[in-house]
Amino acid sequence: MEEGPYKCVRDVNGTVSRVIRMGTRKSQLARIQTDYVAEKLKNLYPDVNLGIVPMSTIGDKILDTALSKIGEKSLFTKELENALERNEVDLVVHSLKDLPTTLPDGFTIGAVLQRESPYDAVVLHPKNSGLTLDSLPDGSVIGTSSLRRAAQLKKRFSHLEFKDIRGNLNTRLKKLDEKEDYSAIILAAAGLKRMGWETRISQVLNPEDCMYAVGQGALAVEVRARDSDILEMVSNLHHPETVLRCIAERAFLRRLSLLTACLSLTGAVYSLDGTDCLKDTMEASITPGNQAEESADFQHVGVTALNVPQFSQVAAEKLGVALADLLLSQGAMEILTTARKLNDAR
After folding, report:
1. What 3-state class would DSSP assign to 334?
2. CA-based end-to-end distance of the chain
3. Pairing state of beta strands 120-124 and 203-205?
4. How far, in Å, CA of 213 to CA of 7, rounded?
5. Contact by Cβ (8 Å): 79, 56
6. Cβ partners under 8 Å of residue 119, min gap 6
7. Helix, strand or coil for residue 331?
8. Which residues are within 8 A (CB) of 99 and not within 5 positions of it... i.e. 6 or more apart?
């Protein structure tokens, strides 16, 4: 039965209860991730009724164009957020790295779950078993859908060529295994692990070779900010350390490491070919004794984490902004502007 904007069900005893509808992409990985979140919610709230609503996004539909060329910032989230806005779902499960740092008005990230490995992984063509990126022959073609990965790896592994590869995880692995187009592909280690394909990982790239994407490895639950009951429910899924890491990352859009009561953020800006690079590190205390003031705004770069101290969230966000400002003062904007122009001209 339907009551207002919410879907409800009636059990055998005639009791009516609300169904919490969870929006997700249709891919196998997205469903695995959403089922994981649903299981966590069920463990916390055994009596809650959960329904899963799968849908396709722009990024799922356009498979013959590089992601950087499509020109849409919300490639894997827009349709899900539209459904959230129309009250067709009550929450949406995302890979946090897919969520823009500025969310549409009225939405917030109500939960950031404990992070899986944030690193990138090399998956070799079966014929190259036992090799690494260093030992692959000159001119070997590496597939990646990410400009971030290509720019960094071109600098580190100049003997390799990098070409775009599109499709979901299953599709990209099939393209690698069944054709001779690629010697290897680069994928997020977290996705491979969640799919149960950890044995396909030939090499994990450390941050010195390739800094991982903002939010990579973390799952996010997006909700309507006005739905205080849903927000309170999902907030129990927050993993405080992951929240602070991702607030700092989203504030700067680069890499983070957490040291006890101190955030250490390393960020970099690369040209498309990897030849120009600006890289630096800053630290900030996240203990109550620092000078980060309390914020009246409980949302930080789209994240609402009521169970994580506000002073820590403020410090994390300021750290990301300060590091970005430092690199901008060193010429990062010129590198980014040139990279955007070159990408647009491709």
Report:
1. helix
2. 52
3. antiparallel
4. 36
5. yes
6. 188, 189, 204, 205, 206, 207, 212, 216, 217
7. coil
8. 77, 109, 215, 220, 222, 302
- CB-CB contact of 143 with 184 (8 Å): yes
Which residues lie below 8 Å from residue 32, measured CB to CB, with a gap of 6+?
Answer: 194, 195
User: What tokens appear for 324 in the block?
Assistant: 């970005």
Nearest-angstrom CA–CA distance, 244 and 95: 17
The two three-digit tokens of residue 146, written as one number: 């990410």
Known catalytic residues are 98
Per-residue pLDDT in tens (0 to 9) along the chain, 346 residues? 233 344 555 555 555 467 899 999 988 999 999 999 999 999 999 989 999 999 876 655 555 555 554 454 566 678 889 999 999 999 999 999 988 888 888 999 999 999 999 999 999 999 999 999 999 999 999 999 888 899 899 989 999 999 999 888 999 999 999 989 999 999 999 999 999 999 999 999 999 999 999 999 999 999 999 999 999 999 999 999 999 999 999 987 643 354 445 677 788 888 888 788 888 888 777 665 544 444 456 788 888 898 888 888 988 898 888 888 888 888 888 888 888 787 777 6
261 close to 247: Cβ distance less than 8 angstroms:
no
Tokens of 215: 């939010």
Listed in sequence order, the DSSP H helices in the chain are: 28-44, 58-61, 67-70, 78-85, 147-156, 169-178, 189-194, 228-235, 240-252, 310-329, 332-345
Sequence-distant (6+) residues with CB within 8 A of 172 are 143, 145, 165, 166, 185, 187
